[in-house]
Amino acid sequence: MKSKLMVFAIVAALLLASYLYLIDAPSVAKNESLPGLLLESDQIKGIISNFNDLLDQNPGNDDTHVPVQSETAMPVSPTAIQGYVNIYGTIVDQDNQPIENALISEEYRFASARSDAEGRYQISVKLTKFKNPVVNIMRSGYREERVWVEGDDLGSGQAIKLDVSLSEANDTTSIHGWIGNDIGEGIAVQKIRITSRGLTQYVVSSDERGDFSFEGVRSGLNYRLEVFPEAQYLRYLYDSVEVTHNTPFIKVILTSINLVDINGMVVSSAGVPVPDFEINVRNTTTNSLVRMVSTDSSGFFKLDRFPAGELQFLTAYPEYFKITGVTLAPNETRSLNLVIDKGTHYLSGWVSDQNGVPVDNARVTLDAEINRGTTKSLSYRSRITNSAGAFSFADLGNETHVITVYAQDFKRKAISHRFESPSEEIHITLSSK
């Protein structure tokens, strides 16, 4: 029973966290035609999800994964960067001849490089605790190799030698294109990804002229093309690019957006500044990438060059806060006052059945809503009762809270609670189903 309740609690908490992040998010519109392959982001305004989510994706179940263990005894490459792992090697064909201009890319971190005339390459991949590098090696006329670099001992500044041999294939081709703004200027270092059937993905960046190209893409398939631009442009998504040996040159035009500088305070419902508080900011008008801000010791925060429009402020586990109803117009200067359910109040209690027997492993949630004009601030906290049926919540504001208890074999119970003193204890009795 305990394990089932624990699984139920975890799943419910994850679902609610997803709700707090995704509620009111605009749906992705799809461009239905591709006249001349001129793709304009303001035609679709579809925005992909947070780029940081790429770090949480599974590499997939592709059977072409080739595990490669890191060479811990190899000396550190002189070009290695702190916080990155350096991957280098040589790309050759079946006759051991070097392959020039092969595309080598790490599919989750947008690192890519090309092999030189001798087949040599080198890329630096940022290390994270969530994913080991997954490297794709591609060249038109050859079959792609996908290498999953394994090893729990990958370290900052480490060098990994990865030599790959590609076999010939006649069903691969190249895709070429250009990325620019709405006044015709090419835009460099824009991150571009194409994905087929949600399994195979290729990533490159545009060069200083805005040009980009993909090598070794399998023809006869439809691909989703996504561009992850800098903050001053709308993100771009085109859902279906058909790749053949005669795929036209792709021209992507990004639409500029207005940026504003944001500053303000995070305070409790009593108006007391909340120091050292981290919160994510998302623009729901453009569905821009999430940026995190932190308050200083005075509760003050500042965020420069963020897209104007409707803003949403969010936190993650273990306490969930969500603030909506904040809209900033282009060129507007305003100091924000963000109110959250934080304070010095303490609530403890215990849960029992109708006979006074403690109920353990019950999930107790605590919700509050604060309205200030057009701004709405929601909070959510969750606890699991111990063997004595006890639970507690600290650092609460003096707001009306809704306490809800979920327990197996008992009816759900919700009560409203308002503090009359800084520290209070309550007893919740559950009824059997």
Describe the structure.
With 433 residues, this protein is mainly β. The chain folds into three domains: 1-30 and 257-433, Immunoglobulin-like (Sandwich), CATH 2.60.40; 31-56 and 171-254, Immunoglobulin-like (Sandwich); 65-165, Immunoglobulin-like (Sandwich), CATH 2.60.40. The protein is built from two helices and 31 strands. The chain has helices spanning 2-22, 41-44; strands spanning 38-40, 65-69, 84-92, 103-106, 111-114, 120-126, 134-138, 145-150, 159-161, 164-165, 172-181, 191-196, 200-205, 211-218, 221-228, 236-243, 250-254, 259-268, 278-283, 291-294, 300-307, 309-314, 320-328, 335-340, 345-352, 363-372, 375-384, 390-396, 401-406, 413-417, 423-429. It has an eight-stranded antiparallel sheet, with helices on one face. The protein has a five-stranded mixed sheet with strand order 2-8-7-4-5, with no helix packed on it. Strand 7 (134-138) and strand 8 (145-150) form a beta hairpin. The radius of gyration is 26 Å and the shape is elongated.
